[in-house]
Amino acid sequence: MTPASGKFRSRIKTFLRRNRGLQTQFLAELVKTPSDNPPGDCRQHGMRARRLLQALDFKVRAHPVPAETVRAAGMQSAVNLVVRENFGPLRGGPVIALNAHGDVVPPGLGWSVDPYGARIRKGYMLGRGVAVSKSDFATYAFALLALKAAAAAQRHELRGSVELHFTYDEEAGGEIGPKRLLDEGISRPDFVICAGFTHGITIAHNGCLHLEVEVIGKSGHAARPATGIDALEAGNGIMTGLYALRKTWRRRRSATRGIDSPTLVIGLVSGGINTNVVPDNVKFRIDRRIIPEENPQAAERDLIAQIRRLAAHWPGVRVTSRRVLLARPFTPVRGQEKLVAVLRRNGNEVLGERLQTHGVPLYSDARHYSAAGIPTVLYGAGPRTLEQANGHRADEKLKLADLYAATEVVALSLADLLGGQA
Predict the structure, then answer these.
(1) Is 382 in contact with 398 (CB distance < 8 Å)?
(2) If pLDDT is split at 50, 70 and 90, which confidence band does 70 have?
(3) How many other CB atoms are found less than 10 A from the CB of residue 241?
(4) For residue 389, what is the domain's CATH number?
(5) How many domains does the chain have?
(6) What would the DSSP string read from start to end of 191-245?
(7) Average pLDDT value for the chain
(8) pTM of the shown model
């Protein structure tokens, strides 16, 4: 994997620096088009992104997801966009996919600016999705654009293909986005870079289990509580027991830097009939984060067993559980080290720093590629942490200098991976 020639690399850098204004405008247009998930009505954003990519002279294949499949994922509309650019003889060259998601969490309250305004303030662009991960639509599109321009201007021998995978269901689990692209045979890349941040390379992340628990009791008049079976009282006892159990998990430590221990949060609770009625039904949803060393199915079985054990303390109560989501952890596969090496080399050149590898406690679409045996990392535009970007919070922001630097790192890395020679 010889680095591309100095002249070729210089052409990439020059192209990107001359087109920063266009890249910024491209990202702003994506931020200005809402794609909140939920509710997950993302077709309009997909079509807008397609037109923007076509304006850059990319040939874009749009793969609509069938309506019934979209509804089963809890969304309203979705499309998967794929761009494929071939360089030189295809035989023997790698296929490298760059994946980012265009769906975003709703903006919520507390914004100081219009969340869809793409306002630029003191070198930062603000807006929902500007860092997670509409930014990497811009990172990856312009990295590929720079590679094309350099290859056209200089008869440089590159071998292989680069694909853009822009999908719209990461916030819902990625099942009808990247996983569908793989399952349907639409793409089978050799390497994948997924949306990430500029100053580090993510090589692993947690999995996640969402479990809905229903506690069923018996209604009764609040003036005579003994005539009912209080589902809320039992549910409270079960939830308290689960939080006590969570404390014992602190002894389980992941070997991956950036990931600590398994976690559990009860994020939703609903139930009851009226103030003066003994509640006969309570539902709550659990978010259980699964560290890379754990088996997801075993973690699910253990949690259900613990719920049943706790429920046994409440006579007359019936408890059921339903899996809402089970996302496996993202773990390294053989070949990932090649991506790390090339990104580190170019990160050092562009940023003047050694990019550290780490894990993160959240989950992403990267797991789908890794589960298929494809070497995958997360790298893209953003600060060192999600919190610094205000990701999933008010006033989400992206430092434009990070966007430009990450694009340069990715473009140079693509040149190296495709076998650039002097």
Answers:
(1) yes
(2) very high
(3) 16
(4) 3.40.630.10
(5) 2
(6) EEEES--TTEEEEEE-EEEEEEEEEE-B-EETTSGGGSB-HHHHHHHHHHHHHHH
(7) 96
(8) 0.92
Same structural domain for residues 225 and 301? yes
> Can you tell me the mean pLDDT for 189-213?
98
- Amino acid residing at 272: G
Q: Is residue 201 part of a domain?
A: yes
Closest residue by Cα to residue 99 from 65, 144, 56: 144
SS3 406: helix
44 and 178 share a domain?
Answer: yes
Q: pLDDT tens across 82-124, in order?
A: 999 999 876 779 999 999 999 999 999 999 999 999 999 999 9
Residue 11 lies in a domain: yes
Residue 255, classified by CB atoms within 10 Å of its CB into exposed (0-12), middle (13-18) or buried (19+), is: exposed
Q: Which one, of 160, 209, 206, 173, lies nearest residue 323 by Cα? A: 209
Give the residue numbers spanning the domain of 285.
Answer: 207-327
Maximal CA-CA distance, the chain: 86
Helix and strand counts by DSSP (H, E) for the chain: 11, 17
pLDDT at 90: 62
Closest CA to 107 of 76, 80, 124, 129: 129
Per-residue pLDDT for 155 more than 90? no
413 and 293 belong to one structural domain: no
